[in-house]
Design goal:
- It is built from five helices and no strands.
- The protein is mostly helical and about 90 residues long.
- The protein has a single domain, classed as Helicase, Ruva Protein, domain 3, CATH 1.10.8.
Length: about 90
Amino acid sequence: MEALKRANDIRVKRAQLKKDLKTGRANIEKILTNPPEYVATAKVFDMLMAVPKFGRVKAARFLNQARISQSKTVGGLSDRQRSELIGLFNR
C-alpha cells in the first residue's frame, strides 16, 4: 500500500509539472539541470513533449542532436547529455 501511495504521489507531481511546463510557470532547463526526485524516472522525451511548441518531431530531433535515446530517463542522463540538451535550448 505504501508503494502504491508513493507511485500515485509521483504521478500527481509529474502531471502538475507538465501543466506548469505547458503554461510557462516551470522552466525545462532548470528541471534538467537539477531534477526533483519525482522526475528522475520520467522519460526525457515525455518532459520535452510538455514544453510549449514541442511535438513528437521536434522532441525527437532534439534528442537525436544530443545523441540521447528516446527511452532515456531524466535521472539517467550523463553530464554530457544533460549539458548538450540544455545547450540546444539556449540556441
